[in-house]
Amino acid sequence: MVRRYESPEEHAFFPNRLPPRDNALTNLVYPDLLSSKPSVNNINLNFNKILLEKYINVIVPATCAPGDDEQYGSAVTEDIGLLQTLSKRIHYGKFVAESKYRSDPEGYQKLVDAGDADGVMALLTNAEVEARLLTRARLKATTYGREPLLSSLPTLQAGEEDDSTSIIAAAAASAVVAAVEAMKKGDERDFKGKMDPAIIEAIYRELIIPMTKDVEVAYLFLRCGREPPEEYASDRMSVDVTELCTGNLECDLD
Prior knowledge:
Elements: H1 48-63, H2 72-91, H3 93-103, H4 105-113, H5 117-124, H6 127-144, H7 164-182, H8 197-223
Helix pairs in contact: 1-8, 2-8, 3-4, 3-8, 4-5, 5-8, 6-7, 6-8
């Protein structure tokens, strides 16, 4: 036991398999960023079960070609890293929720006391921030998922001075092309990279953001002294997703 899962940022996928603490290492002191209520803990707020299910049944089929390349060891290593990263990302919702609660404790307490989960969701939602996040995810997927436009870079011969201005201009042009390609929708898309940016955007839009917000709602209910409604239990999504919608942003998610 090296104290990893004592951190409020970390959540075990199989907590019942963790070895007991042997006290060989001292306790770490973490910043006081979350509620100290006993009910607000990494057991009640562990959404890894539903995350693992959606990773296997939704994300992997959407991002991997069908078939068997027999690279099981490499695949499992990547799976572990991705799942741990996704877990940390969605559980950051706890910290976001605490910040939002501190900015309006009366507003959230009133909604929780009334059992109004929809109202809590509406109050914590910032559509403008979400839209910017989706655009950034799509642009990053386009930029990092394709080969650079090497043909546009100037060729430097031995002994020539470094023409950094031309290199910067060429790199900027490459980034502009990637951005234009990234923002095309539907039939306009003709992306020839490692991963269609629309898939990455859909993962954020339909899984990462909703699951983060589910964590936020569950946290806020516990923070305000009530159990979360059944649809915000840690073993499900409040709005279930069985397949990604990558055609355009008008997809019906119901």
